[in-house]
Amino acid sequence: MYNGAYRQTTSRTRDDDMNILVIDGMGGGIGKAIIEHIRSEYSGVEITAVGTNSLATSAMLKAGADYGATGENAVIFNCTKADYIIGVIGIMVANSMHGEISPKMAEAISSSSAHKIVIPMDRCGVTVMGVVEKPIQAHINEINKILSISSS
Length: 152
Prior knowledge:
CATH architecture: 3-Layer(aba) Sandwich
CATH class: Alpha Beta
Order of helices and strands: EHEHEHEHHEHH
Number of domains: 1
Largest sheet: 5 strands, parallel
Strand order of the largest sheet: 3-2-1-4-5
Number of helices: 7
Oligomer: single chain
Number of strands: 5
Helix content: 25-40%
CATH topology: Rossmann fold
Structural class: alpha/beta
Protein backbone atom coordinates (compact mmCIF):
# COMPACT_ATOMS: atom_id res chain seq x y z
CA MET A 1 0.00 0.00 0.00
CA TYR A 2 1.25 3.48 -0.81
CA ASN A 3 1.87 5.35 2.42
CA GLY A 4 2.58 8.85 1.13
CA ALA A 5 0.47 11.95 1.58
CA TYR A 6 -2.48 10.36 -0.15
CA ARG A 7 -5.66 9.06 1.49
CA GLN A 8 -4.89 5.69 2.96
CA THR A 9 -7.34 2.87 2.42
CA THR A 10 -7.35 -0.69 3.57
CA SER A 11 -4.86 -2.90 1.75
CA ARG A 12 -6.30 -4.47 -1.37
CA THR A 13 -5.23 -7.32 -3.57
CA ARG A 14 -5.47 -7.46 -7.33
CA ASP A 15 -8.73 -9.40 -7.19
CA ASP A 16 -10.65 -6.94 -5.03
CA ASP A 17 -13.39 -4.94 -6.66
CA MET A 18 -12.43 -1.32 -7.04
CA ASN A 19 -14.27 1.25 -9.12
CA ILE A 20 -11.88 3.47 -11.06
CA LEU A 21 -13.32 6.36 -13.04
CA VAL A 22 -11.17 7.68 -15.87
CA ILE A 23 -12.23 11.03 -17.33
CA ASP A 24 -10.83 12.46 -20.55
CA GLY A 25 -11.75 14.75 -23.41
CA MET A 26 -10.51 15.73 -26.85
CA GLY A 27 -9.54 12.44 -28.58
CA GLY A 28 -9.28 10.38 -25.39
CA GLY A 29 -5.60 9.54 -25.91
CA ILE A 30 -4.49 10.11 -22.33
CA GLY A 31 -7.51 8.27 -20.92
CA LYS A 32 -6.78 5.41 -23.31
CA ALA A 33 -3.17 5.21 -22.11
CA ILE A 34 -4.30 5.28 -18.46
CA ILE A 35 -6.77 2.43 -19.01
CA GLU A 36 -4.26 0.34 -20.96
CA HIS A 37 -1.76 0.80 -18.13
CA ILE A 38 -4.24 -0.17 -15.41
CA ARG A 39 -5.42 -3.21 -17.41
CA SER A 40 -1.83 -4.39 -17.92
CA GLU A 41 -0.99 -4.10 -14.22
CA TYR A 42 -4.15 -5.11 -12.37
CA SER A 43 -7.01 -7.55 -12.62
CA GLY A 44 -10.28 -7.39 -10.77
CA VAL A 45 -10.74 -3.64 -11.04
CA GLU A 46 -13.80 -2.08 -12.61
CA ILE A 47 -12.99 0.80 -14.94
CA THR A 48 -15.61 3.31 -16.03
CA ALA A 49 -14.59 5.65 -18.82
CA VAL A 50 -16.35 8.98 -19.13
CA GLY A 51 -15.51 11.19 -22.05
CA THR A 52 -16.44 14.79 -22.49
CA ASN A 53 -17.25 13.76 -26.06
CA SER A 54 -18.06 10.49 -27.84
CA LEU A 55 -14.64 10.24 -29.50
CA ALA A 56 -12.91 10.22 -26.11
CA THR A 57 -15.36 7.68 -24.69
CA SER A 58 -14.91 5.41 -27.70
CA ALA A 59 -11.10 5.47 -27.43
CA MET A 60 -11.25 4.56 -23.74
CA LEU A 61 -13.71 1.73 -24.33
CA LYS A 62 -11.42 0.30 -26.99
CA ALA A 63 -8.59 0.42 -24.44
CA GLY A 64 -10.50 -1.92 -22.15
CA ALA A 65 -12.87 0.09 -19.96
CA ASP A 66 -15.75 -1.97 -18.59
CA TYR A 67 -18.28 0.81 -19.03
CA GLY A 68 -18.41 4.05 -20.94
CA ALA A 69 -20.55 7.15 -20.90
CA THR A 70 -20.33 10.64 -22.33
CA GLY A 71 -21.04 14.14 -21.14
CA GLU A 72 -21.74 16.28 -18.15
CA ASN A 73 -24.39 14.14 -16.47
CA ALA A 74 -22.24 11.01 -16.89
CA VAL A 75 -19.38 12.74 -15.05
CA ILE A 76 -21.66 13.95 -12.25
CA PHE A 77 -23.35 10.56 -11.80
CA ASN A 78 -20.22 8.41 -11.94
CA CYS A 79 -18.26 10.59 -9.51
CA THR A 80 -20.62 9.41 -6.78
CA LYS A 81 -19.72 5.74 -7.39
CA ALA A 82 -15.95 5.94 -7.86
CA ASP A 83 -13.22 4.91 -5.44
CA TYR A 84 -10.61 6.68 -7.60
CA ILE A 85 -10.94 9.36 -10.27
CA ILE A 86 -8.06 9.61 -12.73
CA GLY A 87 -7.38 12.20 -15.43
CA VAL A 88 -5.36 15.27 -16.27
CA ILE A 89 -5.47 18.12 -13.75
CA GLY A 90 -7.79 20.09 -16.01
CA ILE A 91 -10.73 17.81 -15.14
CA MET A 92 -10.95 19.69 -11.84
CA VAL A 93 -10.89 23.17 -13.42
CA ALA A 94 -14.07 24.71 -14.80
CA ASN A 95 -13.91 25.60 -18.51
CA SER A 96 -10.55 23.91 -19.02
CA MET A 97 -9.67 21.60 -21.89
CA HIS A 98 -10.95 24.18 -24.40
CA GLY A 99 -14.25 24.45 -22.56
CA GLU A 100 -14.96 20.72 -22.40
CA ILE A 101 -15.07 20.71 -18.59
CA SER A 102 -18.18 22.52 -17.42
CA PRO A 103 -18.35 24.15 -13.98
CA LYS A 104 -20.76 21.38 -12.88
CA MET A 105 -18.30 18.69 -13.98
CA ALA A 106 -15.39 20.32 -12.15
CA GLU A 107 -17.52 20.69 -9.02
CA ALA A 108 -18.68 17.05 -9.11
CA ILE A 109 -15.11 15.81 -9.51
CA SER A 110 -13.68 18.10 -6.84
CA SER A 111 -16.50 17.35 -4.39
CA SER A 112 -16.43 13.59 -4.86
CA SER A 113 -15.24 11.53 -1.92
CA ALA A 114 -13.16 9.48 -4.37
CA HIS A 115 -9.40 9.82 -4.25
CA LYS A 116 -8.29 11.95 -7.21
CA ILE A 117 -5.18 11.04 -9.17
CA VAL A 118 -4.44 13.91 -11.54
CA ILE A 119 -1.71 14.15 -14.12
CA PRO A 120 -0.10 17.58 -14.40
CA MET A 121 -0.49 19.11 -17.83
CA ASP A 122 0.17 22.76 -18.50
CA ARG A 123 -2.02 22.68 -21.62
CA CYS A 124 -4.97 22.73 -19.20
CA GLY A 125 -3.99 26.21 -18.07
CA VAL A 126 -2.71 25.05 -14.69
CA THR A 127 0.89 24.81 -13.58
CA VAL A 128 1.63 22.94 -10.37
CA MET A 129 4.75 24.27 -8.69
CA GLY A 130 7.30 21.66 -7.68
CA VAL A 131 6.17 19.08 -10.23
CA VAL A 132 8.98 17.77 -12.37
CA GLU A 133 8.32 17.98 -16.10
CA LYS A 134 8.35 14.55 -17.71
CA PRO A 135 6.49 12.69 -20.42
CA ILE A 136 2.81 11.89 -19.77
CA GLN A 137 3.56 8.14 -19.83
CA ALA A 138 6.00 8.58 -16.92
CA HIS A 139 3.19 10.13 -14.87
CA ILE A 140 0.83 7.32 -15.89
CA ASN A 141 3.38 4.75 -14.74
CA GLU A 142 3.33 6.36 -11.27
CA ILE A 143 -0.37 5.55 -10.83
CA ASN A 144 0.78 2.24 -9.33
CA LYS A 145 2.35 4.09 -6.39
CA ILE A 146 -0.98 5.65 -5.51
CA LEU A 147 -3.54 2.94 -6.11
CA SER A 148 -3.91 0.88 -2.97
CA ILE A 149 -3.35 -2.45 -4.66
CA SER A 150 -0.53 -4.76 -3.70
CA SER A 151 1.55 -6.14 -6.55
CA SER A 152 1.32 -9.71 -5.28
